Amino acid sequence: MGSGPLAGAGAADGQDRDAPLERCLILEEDPDLGAGLSEADMRAATRALVAPVLVATGPTWVPPTYDPQTSFGLLVLDGFLGRRLRVGRAVATELLSTGDIMRPWEQPLFGLSEYSLDWRVFRPLRLAVLDGDVTTLIGRRPQLVVNFSSRLLRRARAAAYLMAISHQTRVEDRLMETLWFVAQSWGRVTPRGVRIPFRVTHEVLSEILGAQRPSVTTAFRKLIEQGLVEREADGALLLREPGLREPQAGLEPGCAEPPAGRSRG
Length: 265
What we know:
disordered C terminus, 2 domains, Arc Repressor Mutant, subunit A
């Protein structure tokens, strides 16, 4: 009783629509979605929850369309993408990565203004298709319904948090808080600070912050001068809390981990 892509649906860039899709065990890829299950139920659910996998290499992506009545959504297994919404001359970008669930085939609840929506791939994607078969299996266990639905709610909460950040007066404050949000969601703690393993351009940051790109560039330069941010050779960002900067000459080096709870680790 599966629900495949509807006729005329777009395909992920680089994905051959006629080729057989890779399949994955959802709870092996993302064990947190099985939180609260007993050991026996976790083993059974891990075997049962098998999903097709889409791959998108970018730089843009046209999402497939599945039956919105039976398909729960697309789960990001790996990668980094931006959902870019333009209303008039204003542009806003939402960042999504590992663990996020989206329903790109649903139309936004807008009606007052013309808008356009596109998707950009910043790092190659693997997406688990939570199709009709998977949705049916999720519905048999209340804990799974709660866990999967919480991932959708997480995006709404993240959007509200970033909106509050965007209301701060100083662009460098907006930028620093936004970078820490990304680091807390997807970064990794290292002895030198928290590493964001994605390349986030000033253009994308300006669309998140609601600021002009030159202002973001200036704010970024200030944070670098203060020792709070460093761009590494591969383009990744390294964040440091105030007081946890690189040791100066003659000082004993120490571990530069941020306070507990600031990063997922």
